Amino acid sequence: MRIAAAEVVVTCPGRNFVTLRVTTEDGITGLGDATLNGRELAVEAYLREHVVPLLVGRDASAIEDTWQYLYRGAYWRRGPVTMAAIAAVDTALWDIKARAAGMPLYQLLGGACRVGALAYGHASGRDLPELFDSIRLHLELGFRAIRVQTGIPGLDTVYGVAASAAGGGDRYDYEPARPTALPVEESWDTRAYLRHVPSVFEAVRSEFGPSLPLLHDGHHRMTPIEAARLGKALEPYDLFWLEDATPGEDQAALRLIRQHTTTPLAIGEVFNSIHDYTTLLGERLIDYVRSAVTHTGGVTALKRVLDFAAVYGVKSGMHGPTDISPVGMAAALHLDLAVHNFGIQEYMRHAPETLEVFRTSYTFADGLLHPSDAPGLGVELDVAAAARFPYRAAYLPVNRLADGTLHDW
Ligand code: GCO
Ligand code: MG
Predict the structure, then answer these.
(1) Where is the Mandelate racemase/muconate lactonizing enzyme C-terminal domain positioned along the sequence (predicted)?
(2) What is the CA(106)–ligand 2 centre distance, in A?
(3) Catalytic residue numbers, as ranges
(4) pLDDT value at residue 111
């Protein structure tokens, strides 16, 4: 089964997406997500100039060899751009293989270990009334696990808190990347944050009870000892996880956090390689692997990471914001069903215009996501509709402390 063509489709239905579309000589088409939020054109160029010319004529069924060819053959290894490009190729070839076999991808990966993937949604509020409304909205939407992000007194805008009531007006989610000429600059104050967050979870627990799984994203902003302090302060509220408590590239820093708190830790949405996890997993410093198929080198690579994680009792918690395309989301859901050490799946509903371009078959019911039993990933790309939404440069915000020091966003 030879690859006859591969094209890179950049489109902006609600936000920018980069999709690789691979077609075999017998007309089977596979899709891969290569979206890297705020740096989309870098991945498009990498694919278009350095990968697509190598794909045409290759055996589409040789997934592992193609992965190794693109990873080792580039000489320059790892990094978000390279691994997003490899992810798109890998995912497209898995899509093709499953379509050719006439089965959903999860069946090729070993079949289902569960009836569906527990999802969590993003509730947020600038203050408690707004936050409570947003949590109620998510419960009505059917979520059984909810991420809680809150405004901080004294700060105008904070990561993860939609700018309008109930978490984003008519839709509960928000798009952090904005089409401005320069990145929006937000302000941050860790001490104000550390003072405020425990009181928010105290209020949420007393309003919604002790059992609702609650998650919180620290978004890389704390030092290890600050993260240890927050983890300890949140223990009475029994979080499902505290995410990105500290920048994860300093893997050893998690030892300090682990020494001080039993709050479960999740990390890895900005990682792109299994090598980013060796200390974290080998020393059981985290409880959930946050990587997405799209940013970690594809289905092949993420399955390898999750099998490595399983050795140490660590579970999946795949990244699933709206900047993971429906193609990347579908790929995640197939893995979510097939791996034994599944933990939870992040799920932000895509904008209606996104779903005009990407025709999905995955479902969300009773708090669970399912990829469907359609052949392959179960997603079709409407190329004509994609052409109606031209690329629009957009940047993620940057963050500064009160004195102007650039801080992690
Ligand atoms: C999450 C992430 C996102 C990122 C976004 C960046 O937990 O979903 O932290 O909110 O900020 O995906 O592109
Ligand atoms: Mg996050």
Answers:
(1) 129-264
(2) 25
(3) 159, 219
(4) 98
